[in-house]
Specification:
The protein has 537 residues and is of the alpha+beta class. The strands form seven sheets. The protein has an eight-stranded mixed beta sheet with strand order 25-26-28-27-29-30-31-32, with helices on both faces. Strands 1-2-3-4 form a four-stranded antiparallel beta sheet, with no helix packed on it. Strands 5-6-7-8 form a four-stranded antiparallel beta sheet, with no helix packed on it.
Length: 537
């Protein structure tokens, strides 16, 4: 969502019950104002630009949409006065994501992606409709635009071409066409912004967000942040403060402001439930251990206070591109389980982000291969950990993590105590065939083609090995999920119930891929907590 430049209205995008067919809405600031549809196309999606979707005058709005062709995601620039739309159409096999219009209103910055590790930056001249886009790219590499420099002379981006294969920060000059690396981070850069001569960026140090900054050539010192994940970051006009959306294991996501003059940090919000005002939550710790092929896997653990050994939940993140971050996970479910005496381990298996693009690419077209080796290595780590009871281990995951949980239950030789799959794929052939239309090319590169690669996809599918599942299983699914259709969960549930395996199956008719309704989310996590306690304690 975003405010119009004059502050007279707000725009946001929203879907209906998780179907991901977003519309763009506008709502005024008057208390009685009701949202009105600004951009919509039946059966198609319209998503606002990553940064501000407006030009400086507020007369133009930028969004991505597949309303012209369902399998192609264009970028549209709509004149809010006349209703006229200018389009940027991608090259075949690419998906466009708008970043924002330059501060002088002259140019539009766009990401063009073929996969998560093959991204280019496009600069569109809005003053000259006939001008060809300026493309900044490297073959098969990452040039991911983050935002404009505040004087519109160029833009910030992150790339894997300047420091090993980490995503380092750089700036591109429109005047010279040259790249310039900023700093020499040993970890991936995630966010960056420039304002009034101040440049601030966020590094992902093994899952933990760390702020870095320059004012001219001088290094900016920041107060120490609690271990956590910076979801968003903005510099206030004038460059006197930085505002963060910060999530930590011991406190839900809050708005935090850092005063750069005094180097102090202040929470502007407090969304902690009453219990967290009197109970001291457990902090996350990072560990690492070896896996196959010389890989070293990083994981985040939460260990209850007191004497172990404790039962364990192996919680696998989605993605597979994703990372276990130190956050107030699952609306506090992690902390609830730990308070009940259950430990958590969250591995960053092959394919996870945060450890270089080469590590991410290892899983391409190889789901259920090296990643499953890493989950097996996690089990071996738990066997050696003095705080863990290897005889009481459950595996849980959502989306790709649900596929991984089902793969562990069906393909790893371990006496699992229980498993939970939330929107988890069970059949990679039917998953690839049913992907959203604009995802087809990326799915082919990352997962595989449902016809050409059917043999391997079938061999790696949990449904193929379902007869090996004997642990109690809880399956959760949104009926309107466009990414992992309900049929993925139906298949595994029907197969297991036919052979007498204990399966609980909850389908939410008003949800898609995950939970958008708070009451549904809390209900699921409450039921999951009870299910896991029953089988672990």
């Amino acid at each position: 969502m975003a405010w119009s430049p004059d502050g007279s209205f707000l725009v946001f995008s929203a879907d209906e019950e998780g179907d991901e067919l977003h519309r763009v809405y506008r709502v005024g600031i008057a208390p009685e104002a009701e949202p009105e549809v600004l951009v919509a196309s039946p059966g198609r999606h319209c998503v606002l630009a990553v940064g501000s979707p407006f030009d400086p005058t507020g007369g133009f709005l930028v969004y991505a949409t597949n309303d012209r062709e369902p399998t192609v995601q264009d970028v549209a620039v709509r004149d809010l006065r006349s209703g006229d739309v200018r389009r940027v159409i991608p090259e075949p096999g690419s998906m466009l994501v708008p970043v924002g219009i330059s501060p002088d209103g002259r140019r539009l910055l766009v990401r063009s992606g073929r996969s998560d590790t093959d991204i280019s930056a496009l600069v569109i001249d809005l003053a000259d409709p006939e001008a060809a886009p300026l493309t900044v790219s490297v073959p098969g590499g990452v040039v991911e635009a983050l935002g404009w420099l505040d004087d519109a002379s160029g833009f910030l981006f992150r790339t894997d071409q300047l420091a090993k294969d980490q995503l380092s920060l750089a700036r591109y000059s429109l005047l010279t066409g040259a790249w310039e690396q900023i700093g020499a981070p040993e970890w991936d850069v995630e966010h960056a912004a420039a304002e009034a001569g101040l440049l601030v960026w966020v590094e992902n140090q093994d899952g933990r967000s760390v702020l870095r900054g320059l004012r001219g050539d001088s290094v900016v010192e920041f107060p120490e942040l609690p271990d956590g994940h910076i979801i968003r970051m903005r510099i206030v006009p004038g460059g006197t403060a930085v505002v963060l959306h910060l999530d930590t294991p011991t406190r839900p996501a809050e708005i935090v402001v850092i005063d750069l003059a005094t180097r102090t940090l202040r929470y502007l919000t407090d969304s902690r439930p009453p219990r967290l005002h009197v109970y001291e939550p457990v902090k996350a710790k990072r560990v690492s251990y070896p896996s196959e092929g010389g890989r070293r896997i990083s994981a985040q653990i939460y260990v209850p206070r007191g004497d172990g050994p404790f039962p364990v939940v192996m919680w696998i993140h989605g993605g597979p591109r994703g990372q276990e971050r130190p956050v107030y996970a699952r609306s506090g479910l992690y902390q609830h389980l730990v308070a009940c005496g259950v430990a958590i381990v969250g591995p960053d298996a092959t394919g996870s982000s945060g450890y270089g693009t080469a590590f991410e690419k290892l899983i391409y077209r190889d789901w259920g291969g090296p990643d499953l080796e890493d989950f097996a290595a996690t089990v071996e780590y738990l066997k050696q950990a003095p705080w863990a009871d290897e005889s009481r281990v459950a595996v849980v995951g959502a989306s790709y993590g649900g596929f991984a949980a089902l793969s562990c239950l069906s393909r790893l030789d371990h006496p699992w105590a229980a498993g939970v799959s939330i929107c988890g794929p069970s059949n990679l052939v039917t998953l690839a065939a049913a992907c959203p239309p604009t995802w087809r090319d990326a799915v082919d590169r990352i997962l595989g083609d449902p016809e050409r690669d059917a043999e391997q996809l079938r061999a790696r599918s949990p449904i193929t090995h379902a007869d090996a599942i004997d642990a109690p299983l809880y399956v959760i699914q949104g009926a309107r999920d466009p990414r992992v259709p309900r049929g993925e969960s139906d298949q595994i549930v029907e197969r297991l119930r036919a052979r007498g395996t204990e399966v609980r199956y909850d389908v939410f008719p008003d949800e898609g891929h995950g939970f958008t309704k708070r009451h549904n989310e809390l209900h699921v996590y409450r039921e999951m907590g009870q299910f896991l306690r029953k089988h672990l304690l």
